[in-house]
Write a structure and sequence with these properties.
- By secondary structure, the chain is α/β, with parallel strands linked by helices.
- It folds into four domains: 114 residues, NAD(P)-binding Rossmann-like Domain (Rossmann fold), CATH 3.40.50; 180 residues, Rossmann fold; 130 residues, 60s Ribosomal Protein L30, Chain: A (2-Layer Sandwich), CATH 3.30.1330.90; 86 residues, Alpha-Beta Plaits (2-Layer Sandwich), CATH 3.30.70.260.
- Helices cover 33% and strands 24% of the residues.
- α1 runs parallel beside α12, α5 packs across α7 and α13 crosses α14.
- The structure holds nicotinamide-adenine-dinucleotide.
- Nicotinamide-adenine-dinucleotide binds next to α5 and α7.
Length: 539
């Protein structure tokens, strides 16, 4: 049995069934460590290819910088505010979460606490335990007929909407990033302006991510706009509701009640004023704490981390170009071809890269962008002084360096397979490199500048410009023979007899610097470049 290739660190408590998906893979070694001080994590993080956990471990820029082997961060849950995603993207580390698994659990607890509050269930239960019978004092109210405003109509927001309608609530939604048709499909009335939504809400429930836009989304002004009958729920993330403003609004009776599961600082301080208010129902971040949700998110995240490591499937990564699963398998030869064209183009360009445009002709419109990223990956490999460029960070690194990028898809004009054309610019030069995929997996370089060629995009390639005079091929062949270098493929192209010609030669091994000088010294050669095209490929 071969040694495992990948080491995965499991922090926090990830459901065992999920961890087993990693452990049972022959190329993965799993190390489980409970949450512990950051210093300890920093010390050993450079031994791991991936890390997976829940929200307890903060994965800061320091952790990512220190984790020189890291390729994947997995989060068995939805929110990734414990991960510095921006830094991860810069470093080419895929961040994978499990967005679907705990949706229903959160939606269910929201109605649980709402009804608990309206029917005084916590007080009733404890009074019964205390031997009382407070039937008269504990009369409640119905949910039916109230207006609920759901801020954030994503996965959880949608489930709230469905259940809300069943309870006879009037369901309004505020989410500027969701289409009208989605609102219609869910039977939710759209409110385009958040302030107006506040005027209409009997119940305001937040289901947005924590972003710079949503931090403090509900502050003193927003709470003031809600009526004295209003109930506010935050089961999304601490920080979305301003806690100090919430305490004040509750104390002054400007809103009726609040139900809060998530806090700006967790665990919530023992003496936090929210704990002592009568019209508040607090839970200790329990939204996703069900057996079902924990199992679902662990299975989802662990399978995605495994696939990202072992097959390069980044479809679950929130910071990558959404290619994966069967689609990745289908376009892998194209991705490889694009990467090789990028390498070749960059090597032949005399100055730095300033723009890259990829045109893909073939039956898969969605492939164009990943192909551009793959070409950028090839063009910037070993050029940028940082960690490997990959599909996660290619565009980010390009933008950082001021490289303009564009991609287009055109329907294939013939049945001859799929084609990629790369136009790259640097300084005043523009160069076109073309490639084609023949028979679904067989990539060829078909164009270098104005020249039509046909050569395999693998191994070491010598690209030579020469005068089109008799005997050049012989002299190049003789020199390479004398140097003990074997020619695998030799392709000569010219535009017109007696003009300039181009030779693309695939050799076994590679030429040392002085051997390249001997080649360039051949009288007919205008210039020669050696390009390492590589053999292995990983998206
Ligand atoms: P999601 O990505 O499916 O949905 C989020 C929605 O918010 C999207 O539709 C998006 O368009 C919308 N949105 C983003 N910015 C907005 C803005 N400024 N105004 C209005 N809408 C905006 O996410 P989800 O899976 O539904 O999760 C929602 C929230 O619940 C997240 O914050 C997540 O971290 C949290 N969550 C909490 C628990 C818990 O234990 N309490 C469990 C799971 C998820």
């Amino acid at each position: 049995m071969t040694d495992p290739q990948y080491r995965v660190l499991v922090t926090d408590e990830v459901d065992a069934e999920g961890v087993a998906l990693l452990r049972n893979h022959p190329s993965i070694e799993v190390v489980e460590r409970p949450t512990r001080p950051i210093e300890e994590l920093l010390e050993e993080i450079d031994q791991y290819d991936a890390m997976i956990g829940r929200s307890a471990t903060r994965i800061s820029a320091d952790v990512l910088d220190q984790g020189t082997r890291l390729r994947v961060i997995g989060r068995a849950g939805v929110g990734v505010d414990n991960v510095d995603v921006e830094r991860a993207t810069e470093l080419g580390i895929a961040v994978i979460n499990a967005p679907g698994g705990n949706t229903v659990s959160v939606a269910e607890i929201v109605f649980g606490v709402l009804i608990s509050h309206l029917r005084h269930i916590p007080a009733a239960a404890s009074s019964m335990k205390a031997g009382e019978w407070r039937r008269l004092q504990l009369g409640g109210a119905e949910l039916r007929g109230r207006t609920i405003v759901i801020a954030g109509l994503g996965r959880i927001g949608s489930e709230i909407a469905r259940r809300g309608r069943v309870f006879g609530l009037k369901v309004l939604g505020y989410d500027p990033y969701v289409s009208d048709s989605r609102f219609e499909e869910l039977g939710v009335e759209r409110v385009v302006d958040f302030q107006t939504a506040l005027d209409l809400a009997d119940i305001l429930t937040l289901h947005v991510p924590l972003t710079s836009e949503t931090r403090g989304m509900v502050g003193a002004n927003e709470l003031a706009r809600l009526g004295p009958r209003a109930i506010v729920l935050n089961f999304a993330r601490g920080g979305i509701v301003d806690e100090a403003a919430l305490v004040e609004a509750l104390q002054q009776g400007r809103i009726a009640a609040a139900m809060v599961d998530v806090f700006a600082k967790e665990p919530l301080a023992k003496d936090h004023p929210l704990r002592n208010l009568p019209n508040v129902l607090l839970t200790p971040h329990l939204g996703a704490s069900t057996a079902e949700a924990q199992r679902n998110v662990a299975l989802e995240a662990c399978a995605a981390v495994r696939d990202a490591l072992v097959t390069g499937d980044l479809s679950a990564a929130m910071n990558a170009a959404g290619v994966g699963g069967a689609a990745l398998g289908e376009i892998r030869p194209l991705l490889q071809l694009a990467e090789r064209l990028g390498r070749l183009g960059r090597a032949l360009l005399p100055t730095g890269l300033s723009a890259m445009e990829l045109r893909y002709s073939g039956p898969r419109p969605t492939a164009a962008r990943p192909l551009l990223l793959s070409a950028l990956q090839g063009a910037m490999q070993n050029v940028v002084e940082r960690r490997a460029i990959n599909l996660v960070n290619a565009q980010h690194v390009a933008a950082e360096r001021g490289i303009e990028t564009a991609w287009t898809h055109v329907s294939p004009s013939h049945e001859l397979g799929e084609e990629i054309e790369l136009r790259i610019e640097g300084g005043a030069r523009s160069l076109r490199i073309g490639g084609a995929l023949l028979g679904e997996s067989h990539g060829r370089i078909t164009r270098i500048g104005a020249f039509r060629v046909d050569i395999a995009p693998r191994g070491t390639l010598l690209v030579m410009r020469n005068r089109d005079v008799p005997g050049v091929i012989g002299r190049v062949g003789t020199l390479l023979g004398e140097l003990g270098v074997n020619i695998a493929e030799y392709h000569q192209a010219r535009l017109q007899a007696g003009g300039e010609a181009l030779a693309a030669v695939q050799i076994d091994g590679s030429l040392a610097a002085e051997q390249m000088e001997m080649l360039c010294a051949l009288p007919e050669l205008l210039d020669a470049k050696q390009v390492e095209m590589g053999w292995d490929y990983r998206p």
